[in-house]
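Researcher: Let's run the pair from yesterday's discussion. Sequence first, then tokens, for each.
Model: Starting with the first of the pair.
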Amino acid sequence: MWRLNVRRMYLNNVFDVGKFFVNRRFNIQHGELLLLQLVKKDDPRHLGRIRGIMESDGVVEDEHDESVELYGRKWKYSILASRIIRLQPRDWFDLDDIIGINARKYYTQVEAMRLEHDDALAVERRLVRYLKHIKQ
């Protein structure tokens, strides 16, 4: 499981097109779960930064400048989603709601970050009703 930092102004497009653009080629494998987390400044009322889940369908180069078409800026890679789910507002959460103080290690400016195994299991328990729609 990975955590992806996304700006609020890009979030709807991520859900609509099923792609998340990054500048580093992260070792995200097909079928891995990706949490869509708003950057801190885009959640000033602390409503919960995790807003959605993607299932990875791979990482490819943005050879045809689709990121420029969508956002007016260039990213090097696109993380493709085989499935994507928008969480209901009542289910938004922050990683520290589940992991506690250890969640701080995931609050960095890095675009994507892998969650440690035990932390990923705790998040999966929180998202079980959504994950049954992904893992069929």
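Model: Moving on to the second of the pair.
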Amino acid sequence: MANTDDLYLEFVASLKIDKINLDETLRQQPTLFNMVCDQVHEKYKLAEQAKLNVETVKAATCQTIREEALKAGSKVTEGSVDEKCNINTEYVNARMAYIDANSVFKKWSDLKDAFYMRHEELKEISRLTQAGFSTI
């Protein structure tokens, strides 16, 4: 199976409407739209999992920071715990992974919107063709 970037580019290429083979283009639209929707759902799931991981890493990191402060006998404020957490490598990496996953989700979501717009354009072309207007 193609990697997600290749798959995305294949779908982008298929946005082009072939007015010469309009019947085939019309037949393909629901399948292509459904396949893109499946990808959007998968990318959303991955983004949500990454978000959950950020929350989990943050909670564990903050707990560790508090425990270390307690062992050292020093007092910490929530602000200082957050500051230390925000520079923790594991937490930063989890946040970057979430940002990346969310970006991919949004990209696929935008592609879904483009396929919906393609659907609307196909309806209009079909209507014009049936009315006897040339769309080529």
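Researcher: Give me one sentence on the second I can quote.
Model: The helical segments are 4-13, 22-72, 78-86, 89-130.
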